[in-house]
Amino acid sequence: MKIKQLSIFLQNKIGSLSNPLNILSEENINIRALSMADTSEFCILRLVVDNPDKGKKVLENNDFLVKLTEIIGVEMNDTPGGLTNVLKILKNNNIDLEYLYAFTHEKIGKAILLIHTNDNDKSIEVLKNNNTEVISPEEVYNL
Question: At 78, phi and psi to the nearest 5?
């Protein structure tokens, strides 16, 4: 039930974001979600793509430093408090949230939350036990 995410380390300078995105586009790899965090010198671009193994390979072949990380996809209500409800479940079960990003999709009233925690296996179990839908990788890759 874990989604493969690409983490790409880039220099924090003009144009550095477009280079890996152009490579993925040329290889017909579609981006499903992305997040970027930066410091003064570098940034980490996190991507969920429709073919993560191919994406990693083509980026590495073009001299990018890429890490494949497993994350969790959660379907939540796209209403005020939807995110808070998921976060409460994690907090109440002493799960440390390392990062997250979210997006809406074609299901009206629903959004997808992508999370990485200190224990993804426990997180999946806890979320399911609290009636929270953990979505399959294929559902995200095929959006």
Answer: -90, 65
CA torsion angle 90 43 20 134 (round to 10)? 0
Judge if 108 and 50 occupy the same domain. no
Q: What does each C-alpha distance from 46 to 25, 86, 113, 135 come to in angstroms?
A: 16, 21, 14, 19
- Residue type, position 77, single letter: N
For 39-57, how does the pLDDT look when each residue is reduced to its tens digit (9 = 90+)? Answer: 778 899 999 999 999 999 9
Q: Cα dist. 71→12, 26, 35, 118 in Å?
A: 24, 26, 13, 11
Residue 88 sits in a domain whose CATH number is 3.30.70.260
pLDDT digits (tens, 9 = 90+) for 70-112: 999 999 999 999 999 999 999 999 999 999 999 888 888 899 9
Query: pTM, whole model, 2 decimals?
Result: 0.90
Asked if residues 17 and 8 have their Cβ atoms less than 8 Å apart, the reply is: no
